[in-house]
């Protein structure tokens, strides 16, 4: 008996592109609310090994207002909204202030969700636009929207603290 060898053309062959699940790639926490996350989850894998990530909101003088500690693999921008929800600046004889005048942050905070949140609350965003976002906006032409207005003089005051994540708040 002569066997047949049927060869499938490469264009019709099914190429396996198996992806590993995001959790095995060092993705973020399964706890979207940091208040619910167990306290022993402050250590996670980052580039330098196992470490925590410290997220802080500080005032214009560098005094911490809100601090969150997350695993090292946690991103910066997903922690912005939980930090803003916990912001309470006490005042004499009045309720605490929860809406700052301006928020200064680095390019990690330049997302549509963060900018729209700040805009809806009437908070000035002093956050530069990354080059890839500029390219996407320009490529879309008139549908790409307006360029981000950045107060360069005010942005120079962002470096009042040096941590992996720093957002300055002017109140």
Automatic annotation (TrEMBL):
Pfam family for this entry, one: DDE_Tnp_1
Region ranges (Disordered): 1-55, 92-151
UniProt-listed InterPro entries: Transposase_11 (IPR002559)
Domain Transposase IS4-like, chain residue ranges per copy: 40-163
Composition bias, Basic and acidic residues: 92-109
UniProt name for this protein: Transposase
Amino acid composition bias (Polar residues), ranges on this chain: 18-32
Protein's organism: Jatrophihabitans lederbergiae
Source taxonomy: Bacteria, Bacillati, Actinomycetota, Actinomycetes, Jatrophihabitantales
